[in-house]
Amino acid sequence: MTRIKKIGVLTSGGDAPGMNAAIRAVVRTALYNKLEVIGIRQGYEGLINGDFKPMTSYEVSNIIGKGGTILFSARSKEFRTEEGRKKAYDQMAANDMDALVVIGGDGTFSGARIFSQEYNIPVIGIPGTIDNDLYGTDYTIGFDTALNTITEAVDKIRDTANAHNRLFFIEVMGRDAGFVALRSGIATGAEAILIPEKETHLQELESYLEKGYQNNKSSGIVIVAEGDKSGGAYTIAKEMEKKHPEYDIRVSVLGHMQRGGAPSAFDRVTASTLGVAAVEALLDDQKSIMVGMVNGEVTHVPFNKTIKNKKSVKFSYLHIHEMLAL
Ligand code: F6P
Fold it and tell me: How far apart, in Å, are the Cα atoms of 205 and each of 190, 240, 241, 243, 325?
């Protein structure tokens, strides 16, 4: 028999579509198993300040298809301090909370790991970030929706690029990783994809684009990951403009629209699966782990492992792109 009776759930870091579906799954699975659930608003900030709300089944009705997070999110500086974490622990103790489910990315899990160690509190992480940059899971919640959003936006930009015979540099999010850029580049048939994991050589890019123009391409799309070492879409576009004044170049930075919108069916299913898995892991006396998906199956990955290891992009996608781009 498990001793856990009341759990807290929070979302932290950058929001991602599907976080609500994960909250719903955590709340409903907990209630199904006769646990009480407290919703913690504003991530770890809310844990420190006692911004709590008891969650009923009704509280999570009609949220599976909504973007953002009903619990709000924050990046808490105070939780990085011992004093902040002590306040958070006191709030949990005062409210009889025995365990936590945290939904977020690596920053969220780093905080969770220390907190769990310091106060011996079971904490389970659910990967929620559009960046898909977490080791130990094939997908993070929000990644698929962001790819669909980007694909729709770039398809539209392609229409106007074609009409004017223009070359577009489109910057996508992903922090310091190229997962978002690589997949969205393939999905949109981009002429080139620039990611931080591969050095960008201007000459290589030039010959790529020139080949396209020789092949009578009427437009060009270059997807640039925000973390690309060449300095982002504006910088690389400027350099290209200097060398090729004959190209009609434009830049588009997609920005935070990539984080919004209704989650895709894939993200909803992943979020639901991982939400259930997180609560079941707590009932199974697990602590300090992330629940992830590998080859379609749920996995349990110690926070230590997911924080210390770097997930690698699939370089085979670069090969696929090379075959298909020109
Ligand atoms: O981690 C998600 C993410 O959207 C990154 O892709 C991006 O670098 C960052 O968050 C942006 O953060 P903020 O919303 O604080 O500007």
Answer: 12, 9, 13, 12, 12
C-alpha 175 – ligand 1 centre gap (Å): 6
Which of 69, 76, 131, 311 should be mutated for ligand 1, with most atoms under 8 A from CB? 131
Q: What's the pLDDT score for residue 173?
A: 98
Is residue 133 annotated as part of the catalytic site, yes or no? no
Q: Which residue is catalytic, options 98, 131, 133, 228?
A: 131
Tokens 């020789």 map to which residue?
214
pTM above 0.85, yes or no: yes
3-state secondary structure of 205: helix
> 2: pLDDT confidence band, cut at 50, 70 and 90?
low
Q: Residue 146 and residue 5: Cα distance in Å, rounded?
A: 36
Helix (H, G, I), strand (E, B) or coil at 68: coil
Q: Give whole-number Cα distances, 210 to 43, 207, 310, in Å.
A: 49, 5, 35
d(CA 15, CA 260): 8
pLDDT (tens digit per residue) in 67-98: 999 999 999 999 999 999 999 999 999 999 99
- CA-nearest of 268, 162, 169 to 223 is 169
Instruction: List ligand 1's pocket residues with C-beta within 6 A.
Output: 14, 105, 129-131, 173-175, 226, 259
Position 173: which residue type? M
Q: What per-residue string of b and e applies to 230-266 under the rule 16 or more CB within 10 Å gives b?
A: bebbeebbebbeeeeeebebbbbebeeebbebbbbeb
